[in-house]
């Protein structure tokens, strides 16, 4: 599946500001048709998630904080239901709004619904709207595909899901062309790093992304977001095709340490997954089929789970339910799994196919791609 479809919670960072500086965001929702009871603000900065909330008083609200660069945040409102006794179910397109925050005084005014709003005081947000306009038609198509994929998924229509995935691939290529065009033509933009993160995706091609990154001003590359991107590129270089996979040791389900290099001499698939990951669980039958067909010929799998703390039972149950009979390891640290961090894993499922010497010869092989690759190896 494409990186666009699995885009879950990317680090969406902008240009540099020398140091932490205050920002104030004031909002006016007095013209929103339905009564707004509370507003929530969330954003990711300096390696941490930030969440805040405030009550609406006389149709207005205020958030305050500090930033050292422009950051894409998300505003969400809760609307009272028609009876006025509870809250209406949240609708992302109606009750949410993406806003580029930056140091200084910002304001947002909603017109008739919360998502129909005007922002002032943020040059980064103005640039963000221009970029969104470039991709509006594609974003609308992506929303339609997401809806269809959900319908096929609920109906367990595998053929329909695969067709949607192919359409996502084509759509992603068009989006990436737009992001690349924007970055190369707007290297000084306060959202250049945001666009580069979207272009790079979760499975970064260092040879492609690094030259574009180096086009950005030195101040941008030295910002918090720039250093984060440089680190991602460095990890991508260490996990590229033809590179010897970095060794690691992590405990299996019984608490016994397992070292990657102990699998030398076999073709090995390092499979990053988790019990809570729907796409991972849907891919597992294909991985099981590959293991059963080629294990006796010299193929093995090492599962690395990103299951959450205190969730060992769920991890074990998924292993049993999905018939994953190969070695499984995890430190149950969720996205901070030490091996996942070492390999720069930002989304799952992801995998790396190694040859008997430990060299990476394939990445993110799923479905028919995995079967075809193994068929070539073991013909």
TrEMBL record:
This is Redoxin domain-containing protein. Residues 128-181 form a coiled coil. It is found in: Cell envelope. PANTHER family: THIOL:DISULFIDE INTERCHANGE PROTEIN DSBE. Residues 239-379 form the Thioredoxin domain. Its main location: other. Residues 1-18 form the signal peptide. GO terms for molecular function: antioxidant activity; oxidoreductase activity. Keywords: Coiled coil, Cytochrome c-type biogenesis, Disulfide bond, Redox-active center, Signal. PROSITE patterns: THIOREDOXIN_1 (PS00194), THIOREDOXIN_2 (PS51352). Pfam families: AhpC-TSA (PF00578), DUF4369 (PF14289). CDD domains: TlpA_like_family (cd02966). One of its GO terms (cellular component) is cell envelope.
């Amino acid at each position: 599946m494409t990186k666009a479809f699995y885009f879950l919670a990317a680090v969406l960072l902008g240009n540099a500001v020398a140091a932490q500086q205050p920002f104030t965001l004031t909002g006016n929702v007095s013209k929103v048709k339905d009564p707004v009871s509370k507003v929530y603000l969330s954003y990711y900065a300096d390696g941490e998630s930030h969440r805040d909330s405030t009550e609406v008083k006389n149709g207005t609200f205020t958030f305050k904080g500090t930033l050292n660069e422009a950051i894409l945040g998300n505003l969400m409102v809760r609307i009272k239901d028609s009876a006025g006794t509870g809250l209406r179910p949240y609708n992302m397109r109606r009750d949410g709004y993406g806003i580029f925050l930056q140091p200084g005084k910002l304001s947002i005014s909603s017109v008739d619904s919360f998502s129909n709003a005007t922002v002032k005081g943020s040059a980064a947000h103005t640039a963000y709207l221009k970029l969104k306009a470039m991709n509006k038609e594609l974003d609308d198509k992506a929303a339609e595909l997401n809806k269809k994929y959900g319908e096929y998924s609920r109906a367990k229509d595998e053929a329909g899901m695969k067709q949607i995935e192919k359409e996502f691939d084509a759509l992603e290529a068009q989006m990436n062309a737009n992001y690349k065009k924007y970055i190369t033509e707007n290297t000084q933009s306060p959202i250049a790093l945001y666009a580069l993160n979207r272009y790079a995706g979760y499975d970064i091609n260092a040879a492609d992304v690094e030259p574009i990154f180096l086009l950005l001003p030195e101040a941008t590359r030295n910002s918090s977001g720039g250093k984060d991107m440089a680190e991602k590129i460095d990890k991508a270089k260490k996990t590229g095709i033809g590179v010897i996979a970095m060794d690691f040791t992590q405990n299996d389900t019984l608490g016994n340490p397992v070292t990657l290099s102990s699998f030398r001499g076999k073709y090995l698939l390092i499979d990053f997954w988790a019990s809570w990951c729907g796409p991972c669980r849907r891919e597992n039958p294909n991985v099981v089929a590959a293991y059963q067909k080629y294990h006796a010929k010299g193929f093995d799998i090492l599962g690395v789970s990103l299951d959450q703390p205190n969730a060992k039972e769920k991890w074990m149950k998924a292993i049993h339910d999905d018939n994953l009979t190969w070695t499984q390891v995890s430190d149950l640290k969720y996205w901070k799994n030490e091996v996942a961090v070492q390999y720069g894993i930002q989304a799952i499922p992801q995998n790396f196919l190694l040859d008997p010497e430990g060299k990476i010869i394939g990445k993110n092989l799923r479905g028919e791609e995995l079967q075809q690759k193994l068929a070539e190896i073991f013909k």
